[in-house]
Design brief:
Layout lengths: L1 H44 L3 H19 L5 H11 L2 H28 L3 H13 L3 H10 L3 H10 L6 H19 L3 H33 L4 H60 L1
Helix pairs in contact: 1-2, 1-3, 1-4, 2-10, 4-9, 4-10, 5-6, 5-10, 6-7, 7-8, 7-10, 8-10, 9-10
Keywords: Cell membrane, Membrane, Protein transport, Signal, Transmembrane, Transmembrane helix, Transport
Membrane topology: Multi-pass membrane protein
Family: Belongs to the exbB/tolQ family.
Length: 281
């Protein structure tokens, strides 16, 4: 079930990001075509063609952004996506999508793992005190989550010494704890990768700025600003992606701690119930 959820969410996310990337690349080609046309017209009508063309090239994305401001949030994000270099922005978006996929899968799994522990233990105690151990096992089998699984493991050894029961519960509890944390490593990896890709885009943008300065043979604020804009946009998106994933990751850790606490309390309560039932005999 968990693998199915992960695959579905991941597939839909990839389709979404590929659609945005393809659209962005198409828009980039259109903008570049408009830039070339603008550069040709300027070169024919102005004696200072080089400086004017570089200025038009740097300002063209801003004009494109202004033209699409009325398109809403989606248009604005797409414009910034194009301005930040489609290649690096796609990698950052992919890291965000992969991280969110694992976050959603973990949240669904942990939400389904939470139960009313107090009611479960009360039902188990009532069955055990009545001598109906099989009925208590049935309750655990019909209840989802690691808490019920731990209780079932303890009830499987009610006729054995208390040390064996405790050892079995502790061992199985370690397995369940590992299942709760499954996939969290990938989330932390995406949290680290997203800003790193943004910083890499920053370095590439600065290199582009210096290349434009070298080509123009002059240090123009407009030329430097164009390259720095690309650099800063990739950094911003990388940091935003990492912040989003960090919020989800902390929420997941909180739910894992809560379920782990429930498991420990249930284990202690189950041992007390078994001890009471033996004393009652």
């Amino acid at each position: 079930m968990n693998r199915l959820i992960t695959r579905v969410v991941f597939s839909l996310s990839l389709i979404f990001i590929f659609t945005i990337t393809a659209t962005a690349q198409g828009d980039t080609v259109s903008v570049q075509t408009e830039q070339k046309t603008s550069q040709t017209d300027v070169a024919e009508t102005d004696s200072t063609a080089t400086d004017t063309v570089m200025t038009a090239f740097a300002e063209a994305p801003e004009d494109y952004a202004t033209a699409t401001d009325n398109g809403g949030l989606y248009k604005s994000i797409k414009v910034k996506f194009i301005e930040g270099n489609v290649g690096f922005m796609s990698l950052v978006a992919l890291a965000l999508i992969i991280g969110l996929t694992f976050c959603i899968e973990r949240i669904i799994y942990l939400s389904l793992s939470e139960i009313n522990t107090r009611k479960l233990l009360e039902d188990i105690e009532a069955k055990i005190m009545d001598g109906d151990v099989d009925g208590a096992k049935s309750i655990c089998r019909e209840t989802r989550g690691p808490v019920a699984s731990i209780c079932y493991q303890g009830l499987m050894r009610t006729d054995e010494p208390m040390e064996n029961i405790e050892r079995s519960i502790v061992s199985y509890g370690s397995v369940q704890s590992a299942n709760l944390e499954k996939g969290c490593t990938w989330i932390t990896l995406c949290i680290a990768i997203a800003p790193s890709l943004g910083f890499l885009g920053t370095v590439v943008g600065m290199v582009m700025a210096f290349e434009q300065i070298q080509t123009a043979g002059d240090i123009s604020p407009t030329i430097v600003a164009a390259g720095m804009k690309v650099a800063l946009i990739t950094t911003i998106f990388g940091i935003i992606a990492a912040l989003i994933l960090q919020v989800f990751y902390n929420y997941i850790l909180t739910k894992i701690e809560h379920i782990t606490t429930q498991m420990e309390e249930a284990a202690i309560s189950l041992l007390d119930i078994i001890m009471k039932s033996r004393q009652a005999r």
